[in-house]
Amino acid sequence: MPYGLQVTTTEGLVITDSLLTSQVIAIENISGVSGSITVTEFDSNIGFVFMKKNNPSGGWSILPRFTFNNVSKVFDWFPESAARASLTSSDNTVIFMRVL
Amino acid sequence: VPHGLIVRNQSQNVLIDDVLPVLVEARRGVMSSDGLVANFGGSGYVGAYTYQPSGGAIVGPDEILGFVPNIGDWVTWNAFSDPNFGGGPSNGEGIFVLRRYCSNAPSLPYVVFKTRSFMPAPTGYGMAAFNASGQCVWDAESLIFSVKEFGVITGADSSSKFFASQPVTAGNCIFGDEGSFSWWQTQSEANFMSARRTHQDTYIFERRAVTRESGGSGSGNFQNFPRDFRYMIGKVQE
Description:
- The structure holds two protein chains of two kinds.
- By secondary structure, chain A is mainly beta.
- Chain A contains no helices and eight strands.
- Chain A starts with 5 loop residues before the first strand and ends with a strand.
- By secondary structure, chain B is mostly beta strands.
- Helices cover 0% and strands 42% of the residues of chain B.
- Chain B has strands spanning 6-8, 14-17, 23-32, 35-37, 48-51, 63-67, 74-77, 101-103, 107-115, 128-130, 136-139, 146-153, 166-169, 173-176, 184-186, 189-199, 202-211, 229-235.
- In chain B, the strands form five sheets. In chain B, strands 4, 5, 7, 8, 13, 15, 16 and 17 form an eight-stranded antiparallel β-sheet that branches. A three-stranded antiparallel β-sheet of chain B has the order 3-9-6, with no helix packed on it. In chain B, strands 12-18-14 form a three-stranded antiparallel β-sheet, with no helix packed on it.
- Chain B is globular.
- Chain B starts with 5 loop residues before the first strand and ends with a strand.
- The chains are: A mainly beta, B mainly beta.
- At the A-B interface, β1, β3, β5 and β8 of A face β2, β12 and β18 of B.
């Protein structure tokens, strides 16, 4: 092992360099079919945004679309289209992850 | 760092620290289908088992539900029903209620990942890291979830270009965009994105079609919607 730590996990002896963890930067509950929040700690160059509906039976609503501006750190969400606003889920959770 | 723990890899990316929690496996199980959308006999169409989360598959705000379909099986997310299609359910239309997930398989293995800090502190052997609030953010006992690959498959604006088939070789569990959805290509068909597991660590994204569940013969509103499908593939112990 050139450097780092070795840890015995349930998968055996693992060098921490190869752990490939995914850390959670922030978890935000967002309401409404559109809006914006600021997530200053998130870097989209090394992160991934996962959005999901909070209503487990809401099978026929669709998630809003979203964008993240990595300079202003503003996360925007909005309906697929104006015509789809009424079918857009308004109770969602967004998980901001560092994955690289 | 003035104090505490940071573990970086060769690329200087932080793997573990004493601030941010990692995602770990919280539980796993097998979902049973709650229904079947039959094949109406059209050439090239498929039937689909429908799923609604129940029991351990119901996730909290800090949890993510992933699927580990058996090799050869496929899964979809949010095959979407338009209740206004053709005038709505009252006249037999708008009945593409395919529930939240669909698969060709009558049972669907799943795994739930959870933020480590929201789980009890470890009690066994090994190393652990805690944040300033005393929450465990990483430990050697938990099965660490790692994102192997993620990205966006861009939707297109015609049926011939809908979503390109895209093989992804990375991991053994798949997370889909619950906003991914279908459109009404014809009067009797719904299309949606699916991920089919072709090998141990390979998925291929492709378009699926399911025929009308029952009834109705309305004029059909040809609607298509460019839509990006966001996916994430991770690795868990099988």
